[in-house]
Amino acid sequence: MKFMLMMNAPRGTGDYAVMNWPKQDLKAHIEFMHQLHKDLSEAGELVAAEGLDMPGNARLVRAGKNGKPEVTDGPFPESKEFLAGYWIVDVETPQRAHEIAARASAAPGKGGVPINMAIEVRQVMSAPPTE
Which stretches of the chain drop beneath a pLDDT of 70? Predict the structure, then answer.
């Protein structure tokens, strides 16, 4: 079963708070994420993982006239959280996806304290068979 684990950062000014952490704290956080990536890869569970650019650089795109893209700033300022990054894992059970999400949530934050950020876990669905 494939699951998408989404790390949401709390709303701010359009910049991630981690950019204001002391250098050693940011380094520890990144090293933790690299180790998680390595462990999941070695276990054959990692399908994909990416960190995302700052929310202030996000754009919303809709089809406009004649299908041409209409691009506006986004996400909305009233959003409470922004997607900071994600993992797609291929695991045997939902419980394993939850274990991985809990590990990611415990990444070290400022001062080495675990950030305990909520990680949304959703199963990746396949298209229904066509007749």
Answer: 11-16, 75-79
Cα separation, 127 vs 120, in Å, equals: 22
pLDDT of residue 82: 79
Instruction: Compute the distance between CA of residue 27 and CA of residue 34 in angstroms, rounded to an integer.
Output: 10
Residue 105's φ and ψ, nearest 5 degrees, are -60, -30
Q: 15: Cβ–Cβ under 8 A, 6 or more apart, which residues?
A: 54, 55, 56
For residue 98, what are the CA distances in angstroms to 18, 32, 50, 102, 125? 24, 18, 18, 6, 17
Residue with tokens 């949304």, as numbered in its chain: 120
Which pLDDT score, from 0 to 100, does residue 52 have? 87
Q: Which two tokens stand for residue 121?
A: 């876990």
Domains and CATH numbers, the chain: 2-123 (3.30.70.1060)
Angle, helices 94-105 vs 23-42, to 10°: value is 160
